[in-house]
Amino acid sequence: PHGLFYPPSFPDRQDQAITKRFFCPRKSDIIIPVMITKIGRIFTTLKNVIGSGRGPRRLKTVRHLSLPGFTLIELMIVMAVIAILVGIILPSFKGMKDEAQYSKVLGDLRTLQTAVESFSIHNNQQFPEMGPDWQNQLLNSSPKLIDKVMLDPFSPTNSPYQYVVTGPYYVVWSVGLEKNGKILSINPQTGKVIQQGKPIWVSNSDEQ
User: Fold this and answer.
1) pTM score, whole prediction
2) Looking at residues 156-175, what average pLDDT do you find?
3) Residue 79: phi, psi to the nearest 5?
């Protein structure tokens, strides 16, 4: 077959057997390179034909073009390989993206926790007030405690991280990987945090 290397024959049968064993690959070892070669020839031929005509003549030329064919088994193998690669790559890509976002959330929450504690030190032990724009109090404080409003990458609406304060305790949280986490309340006496779903959060409370 085209593209294979066959060594010169030897008079000794044993030498011939050794030569065949080491120089003649099996069909399964060469089918993928052969298919890649065929695909390359098809695209090269189509490119040359499509670029050599105008309007309907190009389509007519392509219809009458004789292209190297594929067997049904070869097509099935190509489709199976593509399906396997897609099945491997997509989950891995999603996992890598989620891991990167999770690391970002942890870093952001630590930054906000430090900013809230600093705000309390500079404001007579008072924490920022709750509200959708609560981070603006950190942004506009003196000294300035954050550089910009931090958004939750897990939020379906790309909203800022959420915040709740009750008495001497506060919680800053993200909705989490499942995008439905929420802090319901904080016990002002014990600091016990009641949550819904699986939010990612930080707090000055030791009661988890």
Assistant:
1) 0.58
2) 96
3) -65, -40
